[in-house]
Amino acid sequence: MKTLQIEVCFFAALRERLGERTMRAVPRGTTLAALWRALAAEAPGLERLPVRFAVRERYVEPSYVLRAGDSVAIFPPVSGGA
Amino acid sequence: MKTLQIEVCFFAALRERLGERTMRAVPRGTTLAALWRALAAEAPGLERLPVRFAVRERYVEPSYVLRAGDSVAIFPPVSGGA
Amino acid sequence: MFQISAEPLDAARVMAAVRDPAAGAVVVFTGTTRRTNAGRRVVKLEYEAHERMALTEMRRLAAAAKRRWRLRKVAMVHRIGVVPVGEPSVVIAVSAGHRDEAFLAGRWLIDRLKEIVPIWKKEHYRGGAVWIGAQQGGPPRRRAIYPARRGR
Amino acid sequence: MFQISAEPLDAARVMAAVRDPAAGAVVVFTGTTRRTNAGRRVVKLEYEAHERMALTEMRRLAAAAKRRWRLRKVAMVHRIGVVPVGEPSVVIAVSAGHRDEAFLAGRWLIDRLKEIVPIWKKEHYRGGAVWIGAQQGGPPRRRAIYPARRGR
């Protein structure tokens, strides 16, 4: 079973817990939701936080299946705009 | 029957037809509507124009009865604000 | 800040006039007459005001808006005299705790200003000029202009 | 003009960016965080953005607004980094032929920016700091954030 190299960036509260970015090798067919479950398991309490996903600077749903070369952003619900 | 001295100011299209201001002597009990009918009779076509009335810088209705010392403004519907 | 001004309007100054430490939102409206009105090309504009009454009415509108919404500050300025096409003739600024109120009040104030504040516009075209509003017939809109029924 | 900026925002510059000879109305919204949020006194603010994505999303929002209303120009700027309390964090300007569109689009753009554009606010209090939004539960609001369903 082949694996994919995926770059993941975090923002805001997630960045403070997990760092700015990480590279992960995941099996083909992995969804964002599964990737996030694996990442969230590394720090206590993370899996309960609401998160949003973007791939190549577009929002995508948690069911998105990762592809080779994807650059993923994972972040909390946004709160800009004053 | 006593008369009142009333100062009348005109604005915009009415000012161009009737001048900036005039003094009129009117009988007690005269309404703004009657004052305007008399003034409008002095230039052709005026009585058909829509007008607004103000006394001492407040809008008043045409049925307003003039009082001694009233300063009256008569003008077309407003059109400011771009 | 409530002004009738023969000078070009400075929207940034009007905006600054509503600055307030408790304001979370500021909305500024700038109105400009466009080059074409109802298909006729406007070459020049001219505004005339009943100045004292216009200032009184602006302040009354601001007070009515403050009764209606939770606002911090309101500023309204209108230009008079000759206004080149493309330059603002009116600027309204509102500050409020929240954006709901700032947007609603800003929109309400410009609508009411156009109905109530005694200012008139004359549009100059090639070969003629027209006072806007003077030709319109129909009865006055009572709800809008008479004080006793206003500000509800 | 679409910018994410670490410098203080200049609302007058944003307003100038939407100037257009065919615009009869300009609406500018300025949002500022207030000193008190939910009863806690804010001593400092900090904004973080996914900058490239934020700019992309701002441009997409502007394009969606232009499909929805007849607009001339749209400008959106958001500040990042440390922002003193009382200084604007966001400025949005819209020009349009008529004020209806300018007000509606201005309001819509700030609402959508707050739902969609990837920017986060951290409020610092005496003895602590909180990322706003990070604690809120509940599923994502699909209509709001997913591209396929947006801009209708």
Observed structural traits:
heterotetramer; A: 82 residues; alpha+beta; five-stranded mixed β-sheet; globular; C: 152 residues; four-stranded mixed β-sheet; four-stranded antiparallel β-sheet; 4 helices; 31% helix; 36% strand; elongated; disordered C terminus
Tell me what the structure shows.
- In chain A, strands 2-1-5-3-4 form a five-stranded mixed beta sheet.
- Chain A is built from two helices and five strands.
- The model of chain A has no long low-confidence stretch (mean pLDDT 92).
- Chain A starts with a strand and ends in a 7-residue tail after the last strand.
- Chain A is of the alpha+beta class and 82 residues long.
- With 152 residues, chain C is of the alpha+beta class.
- In chain C, 31% of the residues lie in helices and 36% in strands.
- In chain C, strands 1-6-8-2 form a four-stranded mixed beta sheet, sandwiched between helices.
- In chain C, helix 2 runs antiparallel to helix 3 (99-116).
- Chain C is elongated and about 50 Å long.
- Chains in contact: A-D, B-C, C-D.
- The A-D interface holds A 9, 11-16, 48-50, 52, 54, 57-61, 73, 75-82 and D 31-33, 47-50, 52-54, 56, 78, 88-90, 110, 113-122, 131-140, 145-147.
Q: How would you summarize this macromolecular structure in one to three sentences?
A:
The complex is a heterotetramer, with 2 copies of chain A (82 residues) and 2 copies of chain C (152 residues). With 82 residues, chain A is of the alpha+beta class.
Low-confidence stretches of chain A: none
Coarse structural class of chain A: alpha+beta
Cα radius of gyration of chain C in angstroms: 16 Å
* Total count of helical runs of at least 4 residues of chain A: 2
Q: How does the helix and strand content of chain C classify structurally?
A: alpha+beta
Distance between the termini of chain C: 23 Å
Order of helices and strands of chain A: EHEHEEE
Helix content of chain C: 25-40%
Indicate the mean pLDDT of chain C.
87
Report the radius of gyration of chain A as a whole number of Å.
12 Å
The biggest beta sheet of chain A reads:
5 strands, mixed
Q: SSE string of chain C, helix = H, strand = E?
A: EHEEEEHEEEHEEH
Q: Major sheet of chain C: size, sense and barrel closure?
A: 4 strands, mixed
Tell me the overall shape of chain C: elongated
User: Residue-averaged pLDDT of chain A, rounded?
Assistant: 92
State the total count of DSSP E strands of chain A.
5
- Amino- and carboxy-terminal Cα gap of chain A: 47 Å
Classify the beta-strand content of chain A into a percent band: 25-35%
